[in-house]
Amino acid sequence: MENNFDFEQEEQQVSLEDYLRIIYRSRWLILASFLVVLVATVIFTFTTPPVYQATAKIMVESKGSMERALFDLNYLGNQSTLVTNQVEILKSRRLAEEVVRTLESAPYRDSLQIFQPNKDGEYLTFREQVEWIQDQLEVTPRKESDVIELNFKGGSPFEAAKVCNVIAETYRKLNREMNRREFKELRQFLERQLQYKGAELQKSEEALKRYQEQNKLVALDEVTKEMISRLAEAQAELETTTMELEAALEQKKSFERELEDRKKNLPVEVTQVSSPLLKELQEEYARKVSEKVTYETLVAQEKVDPEIYRLKIQSMTNQIKAIQKRLQEEARRIAMSTMVADPLAISQQLVENILQLESHIKGLRAKLEVLREVVDGYEQELAHLPQKAIELARLQRQLEVDKNTYILITEKLEETKISEAGQQENVRIIDNAIEPLYPIKPKKKLNLLLGALLGLGLGIGLAFVIEYFDNSIKNPEEIERMGFPILSIIPEISPKEIAQRNGSTNGKGNFIEEEGKLIETRLITHFDPKSPISEAYRTLRTNLQFKFKNGHDKMVIMVTSSAPKEGKSTTVANLAITMAQMGSRTLLVDTDLRRPVIHSIFNLQKDKGITNYLMNRLTFEEVLKPSIIDNLFIVTSGPIPPNPSEILASQEMKRFIQEAKDQFDVILFDSPPVIAVTDAAILSADVDGVVLVVKAHQTHRDAVRRAKTLLENVNANIFGSLLNGVKIEKTYGTYYYYYYYHYYSYYGHDLKRRKRSGIFN
Prior knowledge:
By secondary structure, the protein is α/β, with parallel strands linked by helices.
């Protein structure tokens, strides 16, 4: 339970210093990532063709073609809807097609990218050119204003400005044509009606004249004249109303054609758009119009008191205006509602006017029914006249009707011409586009900044990902958190570096690989006793001596590791040298009976070793071998036996340790890795303590935990651990980093001073 608690505590204690250490260890990876991304960003930024943007501003006024002077159809549309519609028109394919046609005939055509071939020598089709115009155009309505901003992107300042201005001018012309088209259609309709009525008026005049000459009838009595005059007025109003109805229907068709350009089958959808309130208002409007015409007829016939009914007529007129206003509001509400939001998202204004015309048409039809009844009544009264008088009355009535209708159509035609001529454009170009001075893409400073941040972030991210999957021991703090006292920390140093310090190089600086030389250089405490690494081994010696300060005069220590190639043999060899240098008689025994290397380190023969003694073939004195270091004796492994574990567990091994204690102060055993075989666990029961060697950046945490568990299972006395092969440049944030460099710089300064003074000469 205690071990589990230590492991959990180890995983939880992560500080800011640990994160800084990870970043420091991976600084070259972070730098490489930073440079790669930054270089890629630089290449992309400086090889991407520049993009320029020109801006033009237009203003859409609320007054325009929707204001009708002819039939008093006032436009009360929402200005925001109008601006939204204009934005959609600016984005429309129709406008883009007109722009392409205009650019096609422009003198600067060959200077535009749209008409240039691509890398394969192919030109854009007309459809692709239209889509290119739409893609490069950005339309932005300004908030709380009637201004629309046009932004166009081009490959050059000239292209961006020119195309942007062509779009604005083409839109202005298209808007003007759309505004005047309705007046034009209405004018053409009235001209056709005037020509037709003129011919009818001429026929009526000739028919009356011919009849009077043939029948010698010049005039009718006053009563008949009055009746004919009233009938003519009623019939003239009937024809005028009929003409208004036809004009309204023609106007509705004009609106529907506009909608049909944007969406097929849209007129059918519009006629289906309604609401109960709209239907009720339309019926009320038709009823009020019918009643008003009836009262006007009674007043004209002088059958009722004019003063009384004029007040009623005025009241009905006010009621009709109120109903018209409510109809307009309901039509606008429907146009803005979700009922037509989807199919008519860009045509709400047209929908509103179509709905208003529907109400107006219903009123005109109701008025026609009343007028037909009035005309039929007069005709029935005229039927009681003599035959000749009836015919004369009919001819005079027809002449009056044709004359009044002709005059009315002439007046309306002139009004329409005046309205068409005075029709103002509701689109104004406020600012024309000018050539931009700088491109908007690529944004070099921003791209470089983002590239630097992305590269740095990517490098740091990779560092933490690698750290997450890397389960190896990297610094002494991790060992301490796992419950191991740190006896010493050995920096990483290569044999080649040691040899270079001791002159084992030729004149060109190349390392001399003489036989045995590389192995001997592992004994750094002997060949370079003043180095920081030698001091680290002496620190190990001192810490172990403190373990035996309570009355122990003999030291029996086993050095092992959790896995192979962690430096345990080099560690035990240098530890033995430091013990001997202190004056203690030291014995180094190679009990790694699987892969012995102590004999190679000291350049000895491995025969006549510990296995010979354990098999009772040689005595203790016969297996002892002196070394090049005073007070240090070596017992090599001897022949490798087939059963190392059984030999190490024998009574002869205990006897060997007892004899070694009788003659030596310090006995050191080099054993196999704990996890690989059971040799170390068996031998640990016969020694005073165990030193576990951990290789930095190689040994996994799980291996260390497993080794600790195996040793504790046999009640081994674990003195602590030695962190071997520490890369100083990767140990940012540890106390050893500062210690090592402070000491090393101090020693190096002292060494240079002594060389200058001739001490080593």
